TrEMBL record:
<protein>
    <recommendedName>
        <fullName>Iron transporter</fullName>
    </recommendedName>
</protein>
<feature type="transmembrane region" description="Helical">
    <location>
        <begin position="45"/>
        <end position="65"/>
    </location>
</feature>
<keyword id="KW-0812">Transmembrane</keyword>
<keyword id="KW-0472">Membrane</keyword>
<keyword id="KW-1133">Transmembrane helix</keyword>
<feature type="transmembrane region" description="Helical">
    <location>
        <begin position="12"/>
        <end position="33"/>
    </location>
</feature>
<feature type="transmembrane region" description="Helical">
    <location>
        <begin position="71"/>
        <end position="90"/>
    </location>
</feature>
Amino acid sequence: MVPAGLKTTARILLALGGGYWASSASFALLARVLTACGMPRVDAVTLGMMLVFILYLCLILWVFAARRVWLPFWVLCGLIAAGHMAPFFFTQGH
């Protein structure tokens, strides 16, 4: 049996660290997608910044609201992987 303090510490680390990392990766992905759709780069970055704050808050709340911590963990890992793989799919033709 895992102590309750360890579970809480794991959720805090996942929510703050993993949520931040997943949000920043999602921001990079969102900015690239919006730019690829024809939005000017400055508008894509500004919109992405505004939306990523909402995403970060929702991820933090979801990590603490989830019954088991494994589902948020894997979703955050998926967001991080998608954000870091985006440059390979959305290039500027270089």
